[in-house]
Amino acid sequence: MEIAFVLEKFILVTIIFAISLVIAMYSTYAERKVAAFLQDRLGPDRAGPFGILQPLADGVKMFMKEEIVPTNSNKWLFMVGPGLAMLTACIGTAVIPWGTAIQIGERVIPLQVTDINVGLLYIFGVVSLGVYGVMIGGWASNNKYSLLSAIRAASQNISYEIAMGLSIIALLLVSGTLSLKEIVEQQHGWHWNVIYQPIGFILFLICAFAETNRAPFDLPECETELIGGYHTEYSSMKLGFYLFAEYINMFVSSAVIASLYFGGYNYPGMDWVLQHTGTTIGPLIGTLVFFIKIFAFIFFFMWVRWTIPRFRYDQLMHLGWKVLIPLAIANIIVTGVVIAIIEKF
């Protein structure tokens, strides 16, 4: 029985890891196609039909490029940085519920690696660790532009993590739990948290853009000021790891947003579908719905990148400290007052 449990978890982890890599790989293709669509261009159209093999061509190019380590860099940390960025990006998927449990024969298999009662705290812990890969890479490069980029990334992450954490407190007042699984299950049908916490959702979404270093918060990678940012000195697959980590972070952020505010794998009429499709196909339909929501948010990330210009750094810090944090505190107070009034009457 224990061997079967370990085997189930190993297969689930392998599948989630593979899906994360494939989505990250084809997000690069989607990014180019979305940019092309918004700019009235074609985008990649040479490698395969409609350019569908472009990510594979890019991957081969990354593997084949020469591996360069700057002479004056801290060589061990220079190599550790990209790996740490990739690791912290991937481990965030462990607590995300991808669907209800499926039944195969007599075994009931939950579509979640682990359901811990502090799942949200785990996510925040992983997010706070993610900046270490950027910091180590920027510092170890011994390049002033990379170091400045790493400092920017660290201060940006610290500033926006506060607002993100405060936005979640109001959600916790509504849900009463830190478990992602329980939060998703509470949003059955149309009872999505975005209806009860619209301000919290907007705050969390803005902070997610800043935490993933996506435009208009991509100051750590500002080409006009910092050449390439923290990965200026990187080449080959070390650079590829940094780029992959960014897209995996975007995927995980979209999954967390969909879980917290848009019901995760829940959808209207889910009970009827489960009743008529059984305990194997039914949960997989919920998982498909969940991924549709994730892809919608990934598209939104890309849409914003090619629509809104980059902030100046002083504007970014002003927004984080003087706008988002006070709004998040006000949202907590209003939510607490409303809940107290509802409980009293």
Q: How do the SSEs run, as a string of H and E?
A: HHHEEHHHHHHHHH
How can the largest sheet be summarized? Answer: 2 strands, antiparallel
Strand order of the largest sheet: 1-2
Q: Tell me the span between the first and last alpha carbons.
A: 50 Å
Put simply, the count of helices is 12
What structural category arises from helix and sheet content? Answer: mainly alpha
- Relative strand content: under 5%
Query: What overall form do the CA principal axes indicate?
Result: globular
C-alpha Rg, in Å?
21 Å
Number of domains: 1
Give a short synopsis of this structure.
The chain has 345 residues and is mostly helical.
Describe the structure.
It is built from 12 helices and 2 strands. The protein starts with a helix and ends with a helix. The model has no long low-confidence stretch (mean pLDDT 90). With 345 residues, the chain is mainly α. Strands 1-2 form a two-stranded antiparallel ribbon. It is globular, with a radius of gyration of 21 Å. Helix 8 (198-211) runs antiparallel to helix 10 (236-261).
